[in-house]
Amino acid sequence: ARDGDQRIYLDGRDVTGDIRTQAVSRAASDVSRFPAVRRRMVELQQAIARKSSVVMDGRDIGTHVMPFADCKIYLTATAEERARRRLRDLSQQDAPVEFETLLRQIIERDRQDMSREHAPLRQAEDAVFIDTTHMSESAVIERVIAIIKEKLQTKGVS
């Protein structure tokens, strides 16, 4: 973390901004359809989790990658709201894109990820559901922290 922001590095190079681009988002969904890629990614993610306590996000973390996680939260928002948020993020990166284009891409990625044969996008049965459509970022953070604290107390972990 730098200045309170999470940073992602690849071979020593900061790729934080690169991995949040539309092209990478589409490519991740396309590549994730290949079972061999998904198996290897799961192996790597589970190896990381065995070494230390982690927070992971992704479209199959609670159902496939970490089915025995202590705390699972399924965050969602309408496709329209996610498109508005993505448009706001991209406008800060000087990456011009139309709202309707983003909305179509989000709907298509959801359809593709929900219908893939291996580890489709779905809510884990034991995940806490949070619809963030009408919530501020700080309200979402507060809710997530409260859920984690409650789960840790239930498990007797402090």
Task: Please write out the topology.
Blueprint: E1 9-10, E2 13-14, H1 22-31, H2 35-51, H3 61-65, E3 73-76, H4 79-92, H5 99-115, E4 128-131, H6 137-155
Parallel strand pairs: 3-4
Antiparallel strand pairs: 1-2
Helix pairs in contact: 4-5
What's a quick, concise take on this entry?
By secondary structure, this protein is mainly alpha-helical. The protein has helices at 22-31, 35-51, 61-65, 79-92, 99-115, 137-155, and strands at 9-10, 13-14, 73-76, 128-131. It has a two-stranded antiparallel ribbon with strand order 1-2.
Major β-sheet strand ordering? 1-2
* Unreliable stretches covering 5 or more consecutive residues: none
> Roughly what is the average pLDDT, rounded to an integer?
88
Assign an overall shape.
Answer: globular
Structural class: mainly alpha
Please count the beta strands (DSSP E, at least 2 residues each): 4
How much of the polypeptide forms β-strand, as a percent range? 5-15%
Q: Radius of gyration from the CA trace? A: 17 Å
Summarize the helix and strand pattern as letters: EEHHHEHHEH
